[in-house]
Amino acid sequence: MSERKVLSKYYPPDFDPSKLERRRGPKQTGPKVQTVRLMAPFSMRCTSCGEFIYKGRKFNARKETTEEKYYAITIFRFYIRCTRCSAEITFKTDPKHMDYECEKGAKRNFEVWREAKLAEETEEEMLDRMEREEAERDAMKDLEKKTVDAKTEMAVADALDDVRMRNAARERKDREGGVGPVLGRDEGVDEERECIEREIEEQARLAFLGGTGERVRRLGDDLLLDDEDGLPDSAKAASDKTAMPPPPVPTFQRQPKKKKDFSAALGIKSGGAAVSALPAERPQLTGRSAAPGPAMAPGALVGYGTDSDESDED
User: Which of 267, 268, 307, 314 could link 263 by a cystine bridge, Cβ 3.0 to 4.6 Å?
Assistant: First the structure.
């Protein structure tokens, strides 16, 4: 028995490779078609014979590249045949929903999760909705801006008309030799301002009136007024002087500063206190001359007396 996988082939003695011709078939027209091996991407039911084809069943299918595109993603179409009646079934890719779409020859079985997924808003739909809302908002903003611009233009036009009318009246009166109407208009404006000021003053006066028509005063003002009414003029003047004494007359003379005594801070006592702190009588020393000498501190005297006692004992 010969080998199944032959590595070397037999060439006859009269073999001439130059006589071999390269055959080229006609170019394929239309969409590109390939034969591929695939599995059913979803469970389906054939519309011709009612055969159920479960998901994952393997088929030798034809793969066709279509001209349709989802953005830059190419859409492919697949052709398979029913396992019972050999009817052609077609489905294609659906990149929008990341799934497959059945075209003809079969009907896809109902799937609960798929219906819920299709009911949800996709990212593309959300982006489209946001773009529409933004465009509507921009339209409303443009409309509001146009309305404001129109109002501003109308106000400017009215102001220009008013200025032109005043200028024309001034020129007319200048030619005639008077300025009566212009002055009369200015006087009317002044009168209107005076009327407005009078109304404001009247409102302020009414705001400070009570229910009986009397002026409302503060409690401190009432007490001062009552006290002043019961006193004569001289007493009022005296009370005013005591309440508000006249300010002192400023003097520009230099006044010497008092020097501060730092002896207390340093622990130095005055002369009287130092004398009282010393003993009344100076102790008499035995065996020594009683000649007057310089004063000595109390501690020094105590030590000195002790030495004299020891010398006497010796």
Answer: 268
Compute φ and ψ for 267, nearest 5 degrees: 85, 15
Other Cβ atoms within 10 Å of 61 Cβ, number? 21
Burial degree of 78 (CB within 10 A; 0-12, 13-18, 19+) = buried
pLDDT by residue (tens digit) across 15-46?
Answer: 998 888 887 878 777 788 899 999 999 999 99
CA angle 169, 173, 175 (to 5 degrees): 120
SS3 308: helix
Q: What are the C-alpha distances in Å from 245 to residues 10, 114, 223?
A: 144, 99, 21
Contact 281, 301 (CB under 8 A): no
pLDDT digits (tens, 9 = 90+) for 67-107: 999 989 999 999 999 999 999 999 999 998 889 999 999 99
Nearest to 273 by CA among 261, 263, 260: 263
* H helix count then E strand count, the chain: 8, 8
HSE-CB at 143 with a 13 A cutoff on CA atoms is: 6
- Spatial neighbors of 69 by CB under 8 A, at least 6 apart, are 75
53 φ, ψ (degrees, to nearest 5): -115, 115
Q: Helix, strand or coil for residue 37?
A: strand
Residues in the chain: 314
Gap between the terminal Cα atoms of the chain: 154
Nearest to 109 by CA among 54, 70, 67, 154: 54
Q: Residues 292, 298, 303, 309: what is their CA dihedral angle, to the nearest 10 degrees?
A: 60
Q: Are 38 and 59 in contact (CB under 8 A)?
A: yes
pTM of the predicted model as reported, rounded to 2 decimal places = 0.36
